[in-house]
Amino acid sequence: MSVIDREKISDFLYEEARLLDQPDLDAWMTLFTEDGTYWMPAKENQPDPLNHISHIYDDRVMMEIRRRNFIHPRSPSKDWPIRCSHIIGNVQAKAASEPEGVIVVTSNQHVVVWYREEQRVYAYRGTHVLIPTQNNFKIREKRVDLINAEAPQRSLTIYL
Amino acid sequence: MQRVPDRNFDALVTPTKLHRSLYTDPNIFELEMQRIWGQAWIFIGHDSQIPNPGDYFTTNINHNIPVVMIRDKDHRVHVLHNRCGHKGAKVVEARSGNVRGALRCSYHGWSYRFDGSVLKIPNETGYDGTGFDGADPCYSMQPLAQVQSYRGFVFATLSPDAPHLETWMGGARECFDNLCDRAPEGEVEVAGGVLRYEHACNWKFILENLNDTMHPMVVHESIVKAAEQYIATLPADAAKQRREAEIIPPFGASYENFENSGITGFDFGHHYDGGKTSIHADYSVDPDYHAAMVAAYGEARTREIYAFNTHNVCFYPSLTIKCAIQNIRVIRPISVDRFIVETWSFRLKGAPEGMLQRTLLYSRLINSSMGMVGPDDLEVYRRTQEGLASPSNEWVEFHRQYGRDKTLTDRVIGGGTSDLDMRTQYKAWKGYMEGTLFSQHRTSLHNGE
């Protein structure tokens, strides 16, 4: 795909958000490549996920574990239903310098979360590294830079 | 809310039971802030956070008293009240940073040396003949009553009567030694940032949970099962390479395993579980790390350092450390039903970088507010906080293995699934609240006990 189709990219982000809103982690995980990662840094402009602490840094194995834990009947923090509402804006896309075909998408995402009798708001700068497939995309990296990454956080049992 | 006692807490704390108001009564919380957090040695930070002159780190020493830890030009570390001697504004606002020359209040420009003494008061002639004495220490940024450190871990206390830090730590001090000795160079340094986790419940729940070994197989059953089930589907080679496979499953260890790990309690409320073994004991040893350790200490001493394997070591009431993991958690109460936990990770000096990465992986998996273990712990604390509003039973019990603890010279030891940790910390809680802990300690020393 030589021309970046922003509408198609936005549709992909909306579909991802729909799966997280429900949430349907089983379907959401399939959006990732086999080497896909989800990263929520704990610091502004954090350079890497391994030599500095992060709130979350999951590869597919950790996603598989988290997905199973999410629905396990003996996880007290998951007894409370969780529902989310993502609003996505300011979507910008550009071709990655390499490898060819890879697209880097940034977006602003506001997520309202209902959990434990309380409604909260998260806001983040999202960065998706997308690999085009025949008809769609796969996520190789999703980076979630919360605007309050350094703040004391409350328990969060879902991906944003 | 019942009337809070002043000097005798027998009605609220017995050797096997606590009154529920300890968790719910704001007046008891206020007294705790004065008498426990106002007397005990409170962990402030590690001196590696401020390596250079003018480097500072700010925190509160209890729920609201702001302090700043700062290194002076002679490399001495000070902990000062973060309050301008003039009108009272906080002088240092950022959480950390470096200040050049002098600390300067942003309100009227009073400036201070790094030891807290006044450097300059603008337009000072206005004070001439007014009786104002700029040399009076009350106009400085005053140092805390006592500031001491042990192997880089800086503590301060609001109490001039607290015993020497090492006396206060007692035998639990060995755990700081073990943490630092796990570095080939014998020193650790803060690395990889901090996680801050808000807890909507009373601050004492986390300290009670640290060495409560009757809860992991219940509270953490789901993540242990989820991890084990998924890892079992991986090819054996792939499973072996997953550090998560070493970290998560031991949270589901049996009652027998936890019983065998033992609990050790000390004066002033400190306690740990493990020692000979713990849920961290079966981690694989990185061969490069092992080689660096053997080069530094020799094989026998290296084995001895590994063999002392504790799980959580609580320095009551503000700090818990994990020697085998190299992370610490710092507790700060906010109100009767709210507190913050900070998780800091440490680099072992002289060890391969992979060791820090393992520490950070652990902090992220277990201690993050979005982790696999922390949210389930917090959920049960919150249920306890809410359940204790019920007057159906005024008491929270901790009878497990009561009467079976063994008292040694400087410590008490007992079964790993006992409530020895509860007996230890609430003996100190009561001593602090009744104002007798330090005087009793001095008396027992005087009598040669």
Separation of termini of chain A?
Answer: 28 Å
Helix content range of chain A: 10-25%
Oligomer: heterodimer
How far apart the termini of chain B lie comes to 40 Å
The CATH C-level name of the largest domain in chain B is Alpha Beta
> What is the CATH superfamily of the largest domain in chain B?
Naphthalene 1,2-dioxygenase Alpha Subunit, Chain A, domain 1
Shape of chain A: globular
Radius of gyration of chain B: 23 Å
The name CATH uses for the topology of chain A is Nuclear Transport Factor 2, Chain: A
Strand content of chain A: 35-45%
What's the structural domain tally of chain A? 1
Overall average residue pLDDT of chain A: 95
Radius of gyration of chain A: 16 Å
CATH architecture of chain A: Roll
Can you characterise this structure?
The complex is a heterodimer of chains A (160) and B (449). With 160 residues, chain A is α+β, with helices and mostly antiparallel strands. Chain A has one domain (6-146): Nuclear Transport Factor 2, Chain: A. Chain A is built from three helices and six strands. Chain A has helices spanning 6-21, 25-29, 60-70, and strands at 32-41, 54-58, 82-95, 103-115, 118-132, 137-146. In chain A, a hairpin with a 4-residue loop joins strand 5 (118-132) and strand 6. Chain A is globular. The model of chain A has no long low-confidence stretch (mean pLDDT 95). With 449 residues, chain B is of the alpha+beta class. Chain B folds into two domains: 42-150, Rieske [2Fe-2S] iron-sulphur domain (Rieske Iron-sulfur Protein); 173-446, Naphthalene 1,2-dioxygenase Alpha Subunit, Chain A, domain 1. Helices cover 31% and strands 23% of the residues of chain B. Chain B is built from 16 helices and 21 strands. Chain B has helices at 21-24, 26-35, 165-169, 173-181, 204-210, 216-219, 221-232, 236-240, 244-247, 255-261, 287-297, 299-307, 353-367, 374-387, 420-434, 437-446; strands at 17-19, 42-46, 55-60, 66-71, 77-81, 96-98, 103-104, 111-112, 118-120, 146-150, 153-157, 188-199, 263-265, 271-275, 309-315, 319-322, 327-335, 338-348, 395-397, 406-407, 412-414. A nine-stranded antiparallel beta sheet of chain B has the order 12-18-17-16-15-14-13-21-20, with helices on both faces. The two termini of chain B are 40 Å apart. The interface between A and B is large, with 35 and 44 residues.
